Amino acid sequence: MERLQKVIAHAGVASRRKAEEYILAGRVKVNGEVMRELGTKVSGRDQIAVDDIPVYQEEPVYYLFYKPRGVISAVSDDKGRKVVTDFFPSVRERIYPVGRLDYDTSGLLILTNDGDFSQKITHPKYEVDKVYVAKVKGRADNKQLLPLTRGIKIEGQKMAPAKFQILSNDVSTGTSIVELTIHEGKNHQVKNMLKAVGLPVQKLKREKYGELTLERLRPGDYRVLSKKEVSQLLNLAKKSK
């Protein structure tokens, strides 16, 4: 069940604020009856019309995408840069990314048109783990990374505790490969956390989201999530509340 104005906006009829104006003005009908209350919730079975023109309600869809570097995690960009939805030309639903990956970060990204699903798996209180692999400048050691497991402050805001694993150290290049597991999704979080312990990130990739991985995908590829995978993500969120 979703709010009526949200369904109208998602269908592309108008912005959510404009949809609210339509409702208050009596221009919206649900199952043939005029609805003037903004709190009204509807399901996919309800027949909605604005000015007696039917509103098409999309079926929910879910995709796992291997985002390449140099792509914006958005549905449009005012600078004309490539965005993630450019890789889905044959998808008719109005999909959007769940959360985001930085422009120069690659890896696993979910796209959907299901707002409730998106909220449930991205809200910090649900604690769905996300695993990143970073190439960092410097020789990483356990002592240096240990503060991340207790939660560090960045710009006055405390980060939730993270888990780490040092995958390799390259003495010749002075770099290391570090795996970091977090459940929050703050802007530039992984980069800022590693920088805070003296390990600036040179390259970053998200390899896992809950139980989902990039197995058999190459940058720019995507696949449909199965019902089982969608349920597993929602169950992970429920268990962590």
TrEMBL record:
<dbReference type="InterPro" id="IPR020094">
    <property type="entry name" value="TruA/RsuA/RluB/E/F_N"/>
</dbReference>
<dbReference type="Pfam" id="PF00849">
    <property type="entry name" value="PseudoU_synth_2"/>
</dbReference>
<dbReference type="GO" id="GO:0003723">
    <property type="term" value="F:RNA binding"/>
</dbReference>
<feature type="domain" description="RNA-binding S4">
    <location>
        <begin position="2"/>
        <end position="65"/>
    </location>
</feature>
<dbReference type="InterPro" id="IPR050343">
    <property type="entry name" value="RsuA_PseudoU_synthase"/>
</dbReference>
<dbReference type="InterPro" id="IPR006145">
    <property type="entry name" value="PsdUridine_synth_RsuA/RluA"/>
</dbReference>
<dbReference type="InterPro" id="IPR002942">
    <property type="entry name" value="S4_RNA-bd"/>
</dbReference>
<dbReference type="InterPro" id="IPR036986">
    <property type="entry name" value="S4_RNA-bd_sf"/>
</dbReference>
<dbReference type="InterPro" id="IPR000748">
    <property type="entry name" value="PsdUridine_synth_RsuA/RluB/E/F"/>
</dbReference>
<dbReference type="InterPro" id="IPR020103">
    <property type="entry name" value="PsdUridine_synth_cat_dom_sf"/>
</dbReference>
<dbReference type="GO" id="GO:0120159">
    <property type="term" value="F:rRNA pseudouridine synthase activity"/>
</dbReference>
<keyword id="KW-0413">Isomerase</keyword>
<dbReference type="GO" id="GO:0000455">
    <property type="term" value="P:enzyme-directed rRNA pseudouridine synthesis"/>
</dbReference>
<dbReference type="GO" id="GO:0005829">
    <property type="term" value="C:cytosol"/>
</dbReference>
<keyword id="KW-0694">RNA-binding</keyword>
<protein>
    <recommendedName>
        <fullName>Pseudouridine synthase</fullName>
        <ecNumber>5.4.99.-</ecNumber>
    </recommendedName>
</protein>
<dbReference type="InterPro" id="IPR018496">
    <property type="entry name" value="PsdUridine_synth_RsuA/RluB_CS"/>
</dbReference>
<comment type="similarity">
    <text>Belongs to the pseudouridine synthase RsuA family.</text>
</comment>
<dbReference type="InterPro" id="IPR042092">
    <property type="entry name" value="PsdUridine_s_RsuA/RluB/E/F_cat"/>
</dbReference>
<dbReference type="Pfam" id="PF01479">
    <property type="entry name" value="S4"/>
</dbReference>
